[in-house]
Amino acid sequence: MTMFLDRPRIARRAKGLALGLVFLAVFAVAPLAKASDFKIYEGFKTLARVFYEVNLRFVEEPDNSEMVQGAVRGMLNTLDPHSSYMTVEEMNDFQQESSGSFTGVGVEISTRDSVLTVVAPIEGTPAAKAGMRSGDQIIAIDDKPTKDMSVGDAVKAIRGPKGSKVLIGVHRPGQERILTLTIIRDFIPLRSVRSEELAPGIGYIQITNFQVDTAQEVEKALKTLAAKTPLTGLVLDLRNDPGGLLDQSIRVSGIFMGPVPVVETRGRVDDQNMVYNSEQEAVLSLKCPIVVLVNEGSASASEIVAGAMQDYGRAVILGARTFGKGSVQSVVRLPDGSGLRLTTARFYTPSGRSIQTDGIAPDIEVASLLPPNIKALREKDLDRHLLGVNETKDDLKDNNDKDAKDEADSKGRRLSKSKSRSKKSRVDVDDEDEDGQDEPFLEKPLYEMTLAERLEVDKQLSQALEMLRGGKVQSRFTGLLVVGARNRG
Predict the structure, then answer these.
(1) Catalytic residue chosen out of the listed positions 93, 192, 325, 368
(2) N or C terminus: fewer CB in 10 A for the chain?
(3) Is this structure's pTM higher than 0.85?
């Protein structure tokens, strides 16, 4: 074998070796609980070797920063669906969103069966006005397929300057055709609290998400409502509320119940095992009856509020079983300004109920207003979700098998219908849904309807109002947990 000195190759080799050593050094100085935990880091030897080999042998000079980010994203992608890596830009967006606003289309997305799926469009936003629905599968963004695209990358692609246009390709389960929604990005003010008077003395407060000023806005809304007529009843609407800041859910609970334990968190690390108490006096009279509305889109912080009020007998919970997100995410800022959103604990209601995958079962069940052929998306449907207390790994396999069978059956039905309509024009087929109909789900969104119109179609709201008017709701709140609350749901 003839050998010769290749200076550029030696330089690249030295660079790769140095980077590999740095990679190992970074993990070697990471804090460890005990000496035996060194075995955890054995796997990083392989990672460092791959990093070294890529730098040494790849056909072009690799971008080491991108490789590190890719490795971190891949690492977190093996965990649950709520853990993720955020670049510096994404961290800034996250903080801006928590403060109450961002620029985009206004849609909450996650993954189901490795497909980007809409959890819910935010009320009043361009996505909602364009007709996007819970359960829609996002298959393309600006004609770029979303296969293998992470949620973070999808959010980044969907967001953009106000007034700019984004094309979102959507597959709606149960339909053959692919929808292309043209949406104009806009400033998305996350107005977290809306209020109005439903009837004399009966107030209505809707919380759409829990952000930095939510508790303050709820308190302000209560005072405004009470200034008109003393409140004799209240509807607290937590439907399609995806959650938000933990401290705000605790403060909101205190507004209705005063200083009581609201939620308990339990994790692997001692500092995650805590009981959180509200620290303020109740703003609303403890005798004022409350109906809390929930549905499949009520998640996380909204489930904390509903679960606590149910455990204490402070309110009647009405609607459909909630989403079932019973985990807590901690945001860890990294030295370069990027960050981790990491699931660090499960949360439990005051009586000790775990909400993970089970959700909150309403005291009075009233079916949600859902579009035809749409199955509500819940935590248990998400890829890699944390197991609930009543769930096993075998259940996950059974659910995956069932989902695959349902999808195959659905595809078979669509093919059968397609063949039976083969003589029709393509335009005719595109204008039909699975049942051969082309009727809008609602003539206009609920938030654009008058109160009378909403009560006509919104059975959950109308029943809550009827119960409060008829004196069928009584506050059983004593500051003590209601016996048997642990066994509900």
Answers:
(1) 325
(2) N
(3) no
Q: Which of 117, 164, 114 is nearest to 142 (CA)?
A: 164
Name 112's bridge partners: 115
Cβ atoms within 10 Å, residue 250: 23
Residue 242 vs residues 37, 195, 303, 418: alpha-carbon distances, Å? 36, 19, 9, 37
Query: How far from 453 is each of 128, 365, 465, CA to CA, in Å?
Result: 19, 22, 14
Amino acid at position 14, single letter: A
| Cα maximum dimension of the chain | 96
Query: What's the CATH architecture for 193-371+441-487?
Result: Alpha-Beta Complex (3.90)
CA distance linking residue 331 with residue 343, whole number of Å: 9
The amino acid present at 181, given as its one-letter code, is L
Q: Which of 98, 253, 300, 302 is catalytic?
A: 300
Q: In angstroms, what CA-CA distances link 215 with 86, 166, 314?
A: 27, 34, 18
Q: Please name the residue ranges forming H helices in 3-114.
A: 7-28, 43-57, 64-76, 88-99
Residue 356's Cα: distance from chain center in Å? 13
Residue 311 designated active-site: yes
Looking at the domain that runs over 85-189, which CATH code has it been given?
2.30.42.10
Which residues are CB-neighbours of 194 under 8 A, at least 6 positions away? 205, 206, 208, 221
How confident is the model over 203-250, as pLDDT tens digits?
999 998 898 899 999 999 999 999 988 999 999 999 989 898 899 999
> What residue segments make up the domains of the chain, in order of their start?
10-62, 85-189, 193-371+441-487, 397-430
pLDDT for 300-332, tens place per residue?
Answer: 999 999 999 999 999 999 999 999 999 998 899
The alpha carbon of 371 is separated from its chain's Cα centroid by a whole number of angstroms, namely 20
- 325 included as an active-site residue: yes
* Helix H or strand E encompassing 184: strand 178-184
192 carries an active-site annotation: no
pLDDT at 488: 43
Beta partners for residue 265, in sequence order: 274, 347
The CA distance from 291 to 237, in Å, is 8
At 103, give phi and psi (nearest 5°): -110, 125
Find tokens 């929808």 and name the residue.
179
- 234/201 Cα distance (integer angstroms): 8
Q: How far apart are CA 56 and CA 51, in angstroms?
A: 9
* Phi and psi torsions of 333, nearest 5°: -80, 130
Pairing of strands 290-294, 233-237: parallel
- Count of CA atoms in the C-beta half-sphere (13 A) of 12: 15
Question: For residue 191, what is the DSSP state?
Answer: -
Q: How far apart (Å, rounded) are the C-alpha atoms in residues 470 and 477?
A: 20
Token pair for 133: 């629905």
List, in sequence order, every residue forming a beta bridge with 274; answer none if it has no partner: 265
**Residue that the structure tokens 């990027």 belong to:** 338
